[in-house]
Amino acid sequence: MIIKNFDPKQLAQEYDGLSPAAIIKLALKSFDKIAISFSGAEDVVLVDIATKINPNVKVFSLDTGRLHPETYRFIEQVRAHYNIEIDVLSPDAKAVQDLVRSKGLYSFYKDGHKECCSIRKVIPLRRHLAVLDAWITGQRKDQSPDTRNAVPVVEKDAAFSSADKNFYKFNPLANWSSAEVWEYIRSNDVPFNALHEQGFSSIGCEPCTRPVLPNQHEREGRWWWEESTQKECGLHVADQKK
Amino acid sequence: MKITFVKKIKIDGSPCRKCAEVQSRLEKDGYIDKIDRTVIADERDNNSEGIQLATLYEVDRAPFFIVESDVGDPLIYTVYFKFVNEILSGKTNEEDTAKDILDSNDLDFI
Ligand code: SF4
């Protein structure tokens, strides 16, 4: 079922101050073809909340082939703990082989992460989302304060919508801080990835993630070597002195 | 229909990497002849035509395409594969499409 006249802008305003549980309820009520994207990190909170609402909620994880052993174990732990199926999505084997053959196993340190992320994450994700109408993510405003201030709790997903089909994204944790997420994890006995105890606040692929120090932003633990090239597509108007 | 391709010169005078990449994809995919005009947005010069167009259409990324037709407002595309799919009814390869998606969206959380 898709709610007729689904209006993400209006709903984003209406639900902005509401709890993640209320937002997940809205998501599951509005769409049948919907799934949670679980990265093996603190977005486990989504799984915890959603399974209390619907124990058969669909969950998927992107297995890039480069995750930490702790993350694989954690995904398995979550599967068993909540007694749910998790669709573990693998990248196209030939595309990975071609990349590794031509550029080696660590091309991202030299060429930037996008080529490898395209093959190992975005293509499998796009294929998976193509059969859904919406997804639920753990995206939060505080994860990247410079670019994410505008994370609404529900939105039309420009990345995966097409001319023929609108696709929607729910971000139930958008307004929660990291501290609130951890407060929930502790007070609800939610299992968590062992890497968090080793200083990892952001958990991604093993070669592209590192622990951060207290007071360092969690994004400094990801793709730290390519900080300066991030904004190349922006268009800046010169501050011209007369 | 009239299609304008706006590409950027960076504030330090060097060409924009993404713009060059999109231009070579237009050539490789056989769509370069569909472009009626190519315009430069020179970040060092607010009066350059591309900067004026970016300001007019409130675009903050480069490169971008302006598609004008006899009816309605011009359409603006900042994502190559969407422009190709929706305006030229063409297809782009899956890997390039994925890179476009990463370039134009914040997907760091996946
Ligand atoms: S995070 Fe690193 S290893 Fe993982 S897909 Fe992206 S570039 Fe490749």
Q: Outline of chain B, from the CA principal axes?
A: globular
In terms of structural class, how would the helical and strand content of chain A be classed?
alpha/beta
Shape of chain A: globular
Radius of gyration of chain B: 14 Å
CATH topology heading of chain A? Rossmann fold
Annotated CATH architecture of chain A: 3-Layer(aba) Sandwich
Low-confidence stretches of chain A: none
Biggest sheet architecture of chain A: 6 strands, mixed
What is the helical fraction of chain B, as a range of percent?
A: 25-40%
The number of helices of chain A is: 8
Count of DSSP H/I helices of chain B: 4
Number of E-type strands of chain B: 4
Percent of residues in β-strands of chain A: 5-15%
Pick out the low-confidence regions of chain B.
none
Q: Sketch the topology of chain A as an H/E string, one letter per element.
A: HHEHEHEHHHEEEH
Give a count of the beta strands of chain A, DSSP E runs of length 2 or more: 6
Per CATH, the class of chain A reads Alpha Beta
Question: How many structural domains in the coordinates of chain B?
Answer: 1
Q: Which chains share the greatest interface? A: A-B, 37 and 35 residues
CATH C-level class of chain B? Alpha Beta
Features:
heterodimer, A: 242 residues, alpha/beta, Rossmann fold, six-stranded mixed sheet, 8 helices, 9% strand, globular, B: 110 residues, alpha+beta, Glutaredoxin, 4 helices, 4 strands, binds iron/sulfur cluster
Q: What would a concise description of this structure say?
A:
The complex is a heterodimer of chains A (242) and B (110). Chain A has 242 residues and is of the alpha/beta class.
